[in-house]
Design goal:
This protein is mainly α. The chain is 78% helix and 0% strand. The protein has two domains: 60 residues; 76 residues.
């Protein structure tokens, strides 16, 4: 009566294994294609770089090292009317993503560090110490104000007694 269950489960597992194998083969082929494309692009870039280096060594004599300047603010070398060179979309995306990843990583590090038990205890201790210090300061200010007020009261009474 239940003789069909074992072959059905085996067939289902075989079908799943076949689908996974096909997906693996397709992924491997796609990866190999992308790797081949990346290698050809790398070779082309290497050739272009070598060509540019040859041109630079032939065209210009070696320059003397100049002082490093962070900004050219105020120097008239750039015309404000000329636009900046365009940045490719891939470079722009890379810069934006890199900056975003750095900011997210630093935020995650800061949050993790702020929620650390040792940091919380240190903050709690400092807050407790600051509250105690402010209470002492407030009591001292109150005592000082009371002394000044009493001194003014005495001076006012002494001044009135001598005038009469």
């Amino acid at each position: 009566m239940q003789d069909w269950i074992v072959p059905a489960v085996a067939g289902g597992l075989a079908l799943v294994a076949l689908v996974l194998a096909l997906a693996q083969v397709r992924a491997r082929k796609r990866t190999e294609r992308e790797l081949a494309r990346a290698r050809t692009e790398t070779d082309e870039l290497r050739d272009r770089l070598a060509d540019l280096e040859r041109r630079l060594t032939r065209a210009e004599p070696p320059r003397q090292p100049t002082e490093f300047v962070i900004t050219d603010l105020g120097s008239p070398t750039t015309d404000p009317g000329t636009p900046s060179p365009p940045v490719g979309s891939a470079l722009f995306a890379d810069l934006v993503l890199r900056e975003t990843v750095v900011k997210a990583a630093s935020l995650a590090y800061g949050v993790r560090r702020a929620l650390d038990a040792e940091t919380r205890n240190r903050v709690w201790f400092e807050m407790k110490r600051e509250v105690r210090r402010s209470r002492k300061q407030r009591k001292a200010d109150t005592r000082e104000a009371r002394r000044e007020w009493q001194a003014r009261q005495r001076a006012g009474l002494d001044g009135e007694g001598s005038a009469a």
